[in-house]
Amino acid sequence: MTTTITITGAGGQIGYALLFRIAAGDLLGPDERVRLRLLEIPQGLGAAEGAALELQDGAFDLLEHVEVTDDAAVGFDGCDLALLVGARPRGPGMERGDLLAANGGIFGPQGAAIAANASPDVRVTVVGNPANTNALIAAAAADGVPAERFTALTRLDENRARAQLAQTLGTPVRTVRRVPIWGNHSATQFPDVSHATVGGEPVQEALAQIVGDVPTWLEQTFIPRVAKRGAEIIEVRGSSSVASAASATIDHVRDWVRGTDDWTSAAVVSHGEYGVPEGLVSSFPVRSVDGEWRIVEGLELSDWARRRIDASVAELQEEREAVRALGLL
Ligand code: NAI
């Protein structure tokens, strides 16, 4: 079988880190061939074409075909998996409204092009920021495509949270499970350890032995560390997170397509779960069953967790209101 995968912003940094892992079979496994469509804006075409030449030189067994284009109708033609990475970054002096408007001008038309050209069971993952609201805009413009097919990436935040817990506990990251991210992919996100386990035991009990006062450690150390990890990477590396973002994108799409055996995190459309207003694209604990994300329901939330989630969801609501005011929804 062959899967057609469209990557927008394929000439950018995350695109460059994604393409070779997809071609090597990390996304869909060793038995699934891939056809790649690299969608760029005219200024990015050269970089995408260069990446396509390198893909050719990789001589990947699984790679059927690579096409580079700046035409969304061509880019999304027959697309099974769309990875929307290309976005407009916040420039100097740009207000939040300007940023939302600029990205609305990208994600609205891309949503419409997906509806018109992609395969009927297309699955869309938005990486480009502000990812949750970009996914909302694309879904709203994609007439006839269920909103459940539009998701935004919060897996990098979850991976960061699990890694921080593993490091603190001195345990391999694979032993740390069930650390969902709630809300927006932004500084307000809530990485939630209340149901997390390490080696099957509650994380909070293990943490208490190491950090003492767990609530204080969560408030003052863990949550800010996870939420500001992107800034830390920029400071140390001199450039934003790229390979880890690409890796998390692979994790998200692979789990969506191939299923999960435990919880993970993804920003998906709310139907009112946990009081999150209907229609918002918010991060939840999810499982993937039969190719669909299902929100893990019935979790008990402390008052503190509730306040944290509400604050992030309020930010998503503000973004939706701003986008509505701009006529983008
Ligand atoms: P980059 O600037 O290296 O690449 C972006 C590429 O997108 C450029 O080649 C540009 O030409 C292209 N592009 C811009 N508008 C486009 C359009 N309308 N159609 C197609 N391509 C378009 O940026 P990088 O580092 O690859 O990051 C991409 C996005 O991912 C950024 O918005 C960044 O904030 C976001 N990001 C999201 C993360 C998440 O966890 N959700 C994590 C890390 C980054």
From TrEMBL:
Reactions the enzyme catalyzes: (S)-malate + NAD(+) = oxaloacetate + NADH + H(+)
Domain Lactate/malate dehydrogenase N-terminal: 5-144
Active-site residues (renumbered): 185
Domain Lactate/malate dehydrogenase C-terminal: 154-323
Enzyme class: oxidoreductase
Annotated positions binding NAD(+): 9-15, 103, 110, 127-129
UniProt family annotation: Belongs to the LDH/MDH superfamily. MDH type 2 family.
Biological role: Catalyzes the reversible oxidation of malate to oxaloacetate.
Protein name, per record: Malate dehydrogenase
Name of the gene encoding the protein in the UniProt record: mdh
